[in-house]
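User: Hey, my collaborator sent me this sequence without any context and asked if I could get a structure. I don't really work with proteins. Can you help?
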Amino acid sequence: MKTPDTSLHFNSRRRPSQRLPKMKPYKRLPSDPDDHNNTSPGASEDSVHNVSSLRGAVRSTKGRILCTITLLAIMIMTGIAGAIIDHREAVLKSCACGSSIAEALTLGCEYDTLASAWLPQHCIDKELTEEFSQSGDGPNGSWQYWADHDHRVELMLDEVAALADVPDAVVYMSAEWHVKHCLFYWRKQVRQRVTGVTIEPRFDTEAHIKHCGLTIQRPGTKSKAGVVLNSD
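Assistant: No problem. I've predicted the 3D structure and written it out in structure-token form, which is a compact way to encode the shape of the chain:
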């Protein structure tokens, strides 16, 4: 009886080689937008481009806002400057001195003998007024003033100026005062081109010129005038 052969036997014949199944190409999973390590080069370039575009848009917006603010500031400042200029021009065109001598003094006004009125400085031709004050028919070229038509109560110049606070008060002068007043006012109007003095609106009219023409033609013997605070 044969003893069984327990040794291993290998088949020396090789089995045909088995090929592995063909693998599909590997696809990268979508990357997390916040995961910069998984960002592809193309995606990285797109992100940089997007960031640059965003920054450019922000800068452009800031520029427009700044430009708008600047323009508004210029407009506001121009408006303010224009208002100041308009106000100054309006002030320089006015020859009003308030409603009382006290107010006139606070406004820097003074009594002008040529105008028989309280006037602000820009309405006074000081050189011409001084000449007029020395062209009178009184002693040493002064003018004489009276409180009455008959020329009995003489007034000093400061008393004449004080009449501005007395409603409807008048002062009486010679007819020559009225004629000289007209002649000197025509000079004041001509000199204004050089002096820049503002001619009082109440005298800067054709009506005043006509009045003066009649006064020179028929001067009479006496004249009178009020003392005013508002020459507009």
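In plain terms: Residues 5-14, 35-39, 83-88 have pLDDT under 50 and may be disordered. You can pass these tokens on to your collaborator as they are.
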